[in-house]
Amino acid sequence: MESKSTTKSSSSNENIFLFIPNLIGYARIILAFISFYYMKDDYKKALICYFLSAFLDAFDGHAARAFNQSTKFGAILDQLTDRCGTMCLVMVLGLFYPRYMFFFQLINLIDIAGHWVHIWGSLLQGKTSHKFIDLSENKILRIYYTSRAVLFFMCFFNEVFYVSLYLCHFTSGPNVKFVNVGLYPLIAWISGPIAILKLIITILQAMSAVINIGSIDVLERSQKAN
Questions:
Q1: Residue 204's domain spans which residues?
Q2: Which of 110, 152, 169, 197 is the Cys-Cys partner for 96 at CB 3.0 to 4.6 Å?
Q3: Is residue 92 part of a domain?
Q4: Measured distance CA(120)–CA(39) in Å, rounded
Q5: Distance of alpha carbon 18 from alpha carbon 65, whole angstroms
Q6: How far is it, in rounded angstroms, from Cα 98 to Cα 188?
Q7: Together in a domain, 127 and 40
Q8: Residue 217 a catalytic site member
Q9: Of the candidates 68, 87, 106, which is a domain's last residue?
Q10: Which of 26, 52, 87 is the endpoint of a domain?
Q11: CA 153 from chain center: how many Å?
């Protein structure tokens, strides 16, 4: 009995904010801030820090599983770092390409609001047994939701699109002879459709979440009326 109580006591005194995956998360945030600082003028330093921050994202999950230190705080920290990093990069693109400012504003709006309402919808759905719209019922979208490879592919090329647009402001990169186009504009053209597709999926997520939240309101109001 003493050993069990001691185990419970030690676990209750854990400082989850100092868990190894969360320390990696803090390092990602610091690198992201350094990247933001240099983004306007020094693309090399900015991208080195930006990529290091993204690279560490591959390790915090492994660390969480290896050390049994998975936490809700760490998951939220990871998602916020990803979303805010992309948001700040898109903000800089709006500065570099003022002619397309409205387009970049829409990207940030869809990305932040779409993920926010989707998370809220998911949380609220866990509190009721009501039936909801499930986008994974769609055969095409089911692949996006269930395949890690597809999800990684989409997220990777989404980031590649914005980074290549960022680079195009400073340099077109080496010339690709068979199409006679700079490397970075070529990458932007290739990855652009994938980034647009990911935006469309985010819009669908947000729409389904809004409808599901509305159905919860209807259900709760009917229950109160009865």
A1: 97-226
A2: 169
A3: no
A4: 32
A5: 15
A6: 18
A7: no
A8: no
A9: 87
A10: 87
A11: 13
Q: What is the rounded (10 degree) CA torsion for 55, 26, 115, 220?
A: 140
Question: What are the pLDDT tens digits along the chain (226 aa)?
Answer: 455 554 454 556 789 999 999 999 999 999 999 999 999 999 999 999 999 999 998 888 888 889 999 998 998 999 899 999 999 999 999 999 999 999 999 999 999 999 899 888 888 877 554 445 566 666 777 787 788 888 889 999 999 999 999 999 999 999 998 888 999 999 999 999 999 999 999 998 888 888 888 888 988 898 888 7
Active-site hit among 41, 42, 57, 82: 82
Tell me the HSE value of 189 on the side-chain side, using a 13 A CA sphere.
8
Same domain, 133 and 175: yes
Q: Are 212 and 132 in contact (CB under 8 A)?
A: yes
81 and 170 fall within a common domain: no
Q: DSSP letter for 135, please.
A: G
Asked if 71 and 124 sit in the same domain, the reply is no
- 17/42 same-domain check: yes
